[in-house]
Amino acid sequence: MSAGTRTDGTRNGGIRTAGTTPEGTASEREAALRVQEMFGEVAPRYDFLNHLLSLNIDTRWRAHTVRRIKQVLSDPHSRAMDLCCGTGDLLIAMERTAGRPLLGSDFCFPMLAGAARKFHRLGLHSPLFDADGLELPLAGESLDLITIAFGFRNFSNYRRGLAELHRVLRPGGTLAILEFSQPPNHVFRAFYEFYSTHVLPRIGGLISGSSAAYSYLPASVRKFPGAPEFREWILEEGFREVEFDYLSFGIAALHIARK
Ligand SMILES: C[S@@+](CC[C@H](N)C(=O)[O-])C[C@H]1O[C@@H](n2cnc3c(N)ncnc32)[C@H](O)[C@@H]1O
Question: Which of 84, 100, 186, 239 is the most exposed place for a label (fewest CB within 10 A)?
Fold first, then answer.
């Protein structure tokens, strides 16, 4: 499938959406460029807003993720990468747990620059590189662990994304995707929808100066599937033992899979 075309991605009733579709974009290429641009705009205020808008719960979600992958991180021979690392919060927690440098990558340079400043300040050493998650500059079967926190939802083609992660992981390797989800309880979901559609974009837009980015956030979450369906997508792309944990009543979910 060409990166410049949009298809509905339907296959055997599985992945129905090709990928994210920020407002005003008409192709996968435009969608990816818009995502890159939006994260570039919010990068200077990203950490502050993340913690404020999630009431700092995002820190606990990343800590939970690190606990679930601790075994792989503790193996001194395992090769791990945090993809879509943004300003590096998950990678920082991973490097501290592993006690050695890992890899971090993202396709938005201002986010990576924020991560680099933090790593320097904290005396951490994981190398960071600029790469598109749909076309990683890595050999096949070269990693034991790939993590992605709140990045996958932004891919312009979900199936290609999962296929690329599958290519790069070695057999038996672990994939951990932390992503916003759909709370299964309808009452809680309605409350959360109100917050994310009416409150979050106003505060986010005001502080970051990019109202588009903080309107995109709830819109992209709404389009993303609930955890059971996302689990099916991951299975369809050849992973096995796919499990998920709901976090904070299902506002987020952590999916862990093996190649
Ligand atoms: C919401 S931020 C999450 C950052 C970080 N993982 C965290 O937990 O705070 C999403 C990140 O995914 C990155 N991203 C989105 N699509 C990407 C792609 N196709 N390839 C690489 N990075 C991508 C964005 O540039 C952004 O830094």
Answer: 186
